[in-house]
Specification:
ten-stranded mixed sheet, 183 residues, 26% helix
């Protein structure tokens, strides 16, 4: 287990792109992250979190260009005011990997409103990022809480301070050309 204090530390992106998992502070709360393109890493998160296998994970992306499916200009225009920001959007998907879709036909994405985190995403590609907690326990608000939850089951932890705003991102779902707020 490695403890870092900066998302720009090259060891973090090296570990993630090599199939490791990390706990980092996202633009909202601490999350357990892994590259979305690695089925093995994604499945490891399900194991570490004791997450129900049918539940999908949020995918953090650097820009709308990282969405798995092609998006029309109309969809891009709908998403533009929401990203970057604390807005997760469920988009229809037919091209995302099966280990991300989990039998569904849509996927939730967020472009974080954090330049450093987006720089990490440019190095790693999209990251799955569920909250840093085992299923049914409250999300970690400090790195020490995350370490207590996961210990050596996570390869690297990045201390991003104490989370003071624990409100989740707003959640929207795109249905056709209509954006519906769910949370």
């Amino acid at each position: 287990m490695l403890l870092l204090h900066d998302l720009t530390d090259p060891r973090l992106s090296d570990i993630l792109t090599s199939g490791g998992i990390a706990v980092i502070r996202t633009d909202t709360i601490y999350g357990v992250v892994a590259v979305a393109s690695s089925e093995e890493s994604v499945e490891l998160i399900y194991t570490v979190k004791s997450r129900q296998p049918h539940k999908q994970l949020i995918v953090l992306i650097n820009s709308v260009d990282d969405v798995s499916d092609d998006s029309s200009q109309e969809v891009l225009d709908i998403l533009a005011p929401l990203w970057p920001g604390r807005n997760s959007v469920i988009l229809p998907s037919t091209q995302a990997a099966a280990w991300l879709l989990r039998g569904g036909d849509s996927l939730a994405y967020r472009v974080p409103d954090d330049d450093t985190l987006r720089a990490l995403l440019r190095k790693t590609g999209p990251l799955v990022a569920p909250s840093a907690n085992p299923e049914s326990l409250p999300p970690a608000i400090t790195i020490d809480e995350a370490i207590a939850y996961f210990g050596d089951d996570v390869d690297v932890y990045v201390d991003g301070g104490t989370v003071t705003d624990t409100n989740p991102s707003r959640l929207y779902q795109l249905e056709g050309d209509t954006l519906k707020q769910l949370r």
